[in-house]
Model the fold of this input.
Amino acid sequence: MILIVGEKPSVSRAISAVVGADTKKDGYTEGNGYLVSWCIGHLVGLKYPDEYENGWEQKWSFSQLPMIPEKWLFKVTDGTKEQYNILKKLMNREDVTEIVCATDADREGECIFRYVYNMARCSKPVKRLWVSSLEEKAIHKALTNMKPISAYDNLFSAGYARARADWLVGMNGSRLFSVRYGGKINIGRVQTPTLAMIVRRDDDVKNFVKQKYFTVNLECDGLTLSSERIDDENNADSLILACNGAEVTIVSVKREVKTESPPKLYDLTSLQRDANKFFGYTAQQTLDYVQSLYETKLVTYPRTDSQFLTEDMKSTALDVVKFCDTCFDFGISHVPDVKKVINNDKVSGHHAIIPTANIERANPFSLPNGEKNILTLIATRLICATAPAHKYEVLKITANCNNTSFTATGRTVLEMGWKTYAKQSDKSEKEEKFLPKVSEGQIFTAKASKGEHFTSPPKPYTEDTLLSAMERAGNADYSPDDENMVKKGLGTPATRASVIESLVKNGYVERFSKELRATEKGRELVKVVPDEVKSAKLTAEWETKLQKIEHGEYSADDFMTEICSFIGEMCQKYGSVDKSVSLTDCSHEPVGKCPKCGADVVKGKFGFYCKGKCGMNVAKVYGIQLSDEQIKGLLNGKSTSYKFKGKKSIVRPEIVENPYNGKMYYQWKTERSN
Done:
């Protein structure tokens, strides 16, 4: 028997259909000499500090720090123990002679499988299924080209190092600064630098002071010429007086044909950016939509950082272009040039995201709206990327008046090329601007006027612009046109969406339509933590080293030594209480107002309590801890109910009279049905 372990049930179903494992069992399928099961994400993970039983489980203090495990311990995730036990039993079955790792072909997928394999104390030989599409043809091909899992040891080393680094920075940093400032603070290796970027941008927007500037415009028989920017209005007025009614001589008329190359294919980040720009989707929504399309075999593997295809995909790419043309009725009239999107050197793990050949028989307009829109973007990008260049002519007219240079620029499209198929909602597209015919030496009489302008403020981050900033956070001289530049970013394409969602979930960032803005809680955290903790450059450099570990160019041990040294130095430098900083209770977000005194109600160790210390609190009711939503309802005058040992219990707020002083006071009334 051969056991194949996928990452998700949907992926495993696709593999089961190919290998003939069509008999459903509890947590796996069986047939044709195969067992096919799945992990449901992380079944096994690193233990938390309080599970090490060496003093770290006690009240947080400086004396515990730094927490650096001598031996890293793992545990089975509480919510997935049943599936773990199924996998453990299958891995150790006597008739299973070989195991195939078919989890997602990336760092996380490698860790997900190996954590389970190691926890199950399995030592059977393992091969790696590396597949970028769930089409039957692709799975068949991958099954015949499997390598021993040892060929992917560097990938696992990078993933395991990343997990330990996140643990060390997050666990130590959170405890260190929580104790230092007397309030709970959550530190994340990638999350905190990302939050710092958002706070900095918010400050730039808030503190921006617009500057007024001027231009002098000359009307010359239908031709408008403008001066350079003039900051002093008096100078602009003087120039108007000098030029009004004066001669304007055309000095030069220059025409230049320019080409704009087609865009590259999508990697995950560029797809998330466009989906946010055009549809307002969050990075996580886009990832969910494209993951669903992948699992329904309509697009290739989504968690990729490449925007190219490999040489062996030429014929497939050409076929898919034709299928996309038919499916979406693009009406292409050119011969697709797939050579533009082929570059073996730019594909290390997974190639760019493109539709699969299954799109030939698909009806994208029957898909849910989100998936339809994402599939349309991916298909459109493939059509554009293989289309001719966009060509246009730039006409620049330069004139002289009163020894001052004035210019006018026009733009005429010569060949639409790939922009014939691009989304019309891209507001960045420049419109044609026609200029009247003039010749060098021609003279006009000027009618001068003043143009008033203001400098534009920076814009708050959207997920589009934040993803771009995260991608190039470590590149001070980043250029999107430099194909050889190594991106030094925060996180990876696969993790950036979850970082943004975590910031929102933890109350550090809020969404306002498309905009992302830091909350007061987020600003406060960034204010108190030191630069080295919120340094985007340092975190991006760590990510670059993880990539080098993945490619066998850097030692995971050296990386971990660097991280441990960083943690040790940080704990030594900031291991004292700082009473100069007063936090507005970072430890608890209010869930509502106390009906007794009006102060905030927060969640503490033993239940919800009033910060005004008036005595109002809600602890466990019949052994059951009420949820945040239930408490919010109670604070708004609503009753709530739940079942305890099969019996219904009701909690309701009520106002009663104190028989001793006649004052009305607030209490909880709890009833338990018989």
